[in-house]
Design brief:
Helices cover 23% and strands 21% of the residues. By secondary structure, the chain is of the alpha/beta class.
Length: 334
């Protein structure tokens, strides 16, 4: 890094050295296998805004929106993407028949972002989540209202959304990588029967952390409360169970994931007694299904499968979401 060897340097120190003021540069010298000598790259630093919302038309009449994390502008970005989907459909003279909201591998983020995303699909003032803890100030309800999702932003970005977004058939995709704010959104839409939740069980991160400032620029972070769905279900350690269980692949295979309940000394679910985890046997990630039941046959079958990519043509869960939305249209027509 700028001719400074990284051998013996901690990751934190290396990151600190690479960071700097925007528009300044840093030279990276990289040793790469197969190259006769070191490679040099000059990178110009800048502020990078991660795009947390992406959308597209999957098939005529069907929209797809993916939220990768909940940031300051996520709910406003979602509103813009929804508006664009509707305008594109109007320009082509076709209605929006259904929508997929993809929260897979979304680790969470800002609470007001989650409230704004859920509020886009729910009536005003609808309860989205609540918190409860040991102290009175830990007890609070959050609704689909501007005071809970705007947070300093002047204009209400949900006010002018197309009216159809409140009733359009909606499937929400989740998996073991969907955590925290993602689970708040999925839980709210599930409890209010606004969407069908599809995929696999979510992570189970349903606790509230509070940072308490101390002296000398230090602070301590404490877990102070739990999040609950509108019907009073605790998200902690259990997560959100999908209405329709769909594994990642057609043969029933899915990646083994650590969830909140697998972590040592995790906070318990206070509403439901969860079965104890087996701790005496090591968990070996394996592919479910197949005649080998996780053995050699399954490994060979998994190796033949194309690499999984969210929203790609081989996305099995998304394909099943589309099948459900199309069946929805058939049922409505009868």
């Amino acid at each position: 890094l700028d001719d400074t060897p990284v051998k013996g340097m901690t990751l934190a120190d290396a990151v600190k050295k690479m960071r700097g003021k925007p528009k300044t540069s840093i030279k990276l010298t990289v040793a790469r296998k197969g190259e006769s000598g070191p490679l040099e790259f000059v990178i110009v630093r800048d502020k990078i805004k991660v795009q947390s919302v992406k959308s597209k038309t999957i098939e005529p009449g069907y929209g797809y929106v993916r939220v990768t994390q909940f940031q300051e502008e996520t709910a406003a970005d979602l509103a813009r993407h929804i508006d664009k989907l509707y305008k594109d459909k109007e320009a082509k003279g076709e209605p929006l028949k259904g929508m997929v909201l993809d929260l897979r591998n979304d680790p969470g983020g800002l609470l007001h972002g989650a409230i704004g995303v859920a509020a886009a699909f729910l009536p005003a003032k609808t309860l989205i989540t609540s918190t409860d803890g040991r102290t009175e100030d830990a007890k609070r309800k959050y609704t689909a209202s501007t005071e809970d999702y705007l947070r300093g932003q002047k204009a209400d970005f949900l006010k002018d959304l197309p009216a159809g977004i409140k009733t359009v058939p909606l499937v929400v995709l989740v998996n073991g990588g969907s955590a925290s704010a993602s689970e708040i959104v999925a839980g709210a839409l599930q409890d209010h029967k606004r969407a069908v939740i599809m995929g696999t069980q979510t992570f189970g991160k349903g606790s509230v952390q509070t940072v308490l400032p101390l002296s000398n620029n230090t602070a301590v972070k404490l877990t102070t409360a739990r999040y609950y769905t509108p019907n009073g279900r605790s998200i902690q350690a259990k997560g959100i169970e999908p209405d329709v269980l769909v594994e990642e692949s057609a043969n029933g295979g899915s990646h083994e994931r650590l969830r909140e309940a697998d972590l040592e000394r995790h906070l318990d679910n206070d509403k439901e007694k969860l079965p104890p985890k087996e701790t005496d046997k090591p968990v070996k990630p394996q592919t479910k299904g197949g005649k080998g039941k996780g053995g050699k046959d399954d490994e060979e079958e998994a190796a033949k499968q194309p690499p999984f990519e969210i929203a790609s043509k081989n996305d099995y869960q998304l394909a099943q979401a589309m099948n459900l939305l199309k069946a929805w249209q058939v049922i409505k027509a009868k």
